[in-house]
Design brief:
Largest sheet: none
Radius of gyration: 11 Å
Helix content: over 70%
Distance between the termini: 30 Å
Number of helices: 2
Oligomer: single chain
Length: 41
């Protein structure tokens, strides 16, 4: 099972954001999830 931190780093690398620190990645992921929820209501 992939830990959340590893998963976030995978996402970051996938989007070419691997230089961004963990906190900004977490915020970005939360924003993406929120945007997805709002678009699919």
């Amino acid at each position: 099972m992939i830990k959340l931190k590893q998963f976030q780093k995978l996402i970051a690398q996938f989007y070419g954001l691997c230089t961004i620190d963990d906190l900004r990645i977490q915020i970005w992921i939360k924003m993406e999830i929120l945007r997805y929820i709002l678009e699919n209501q």
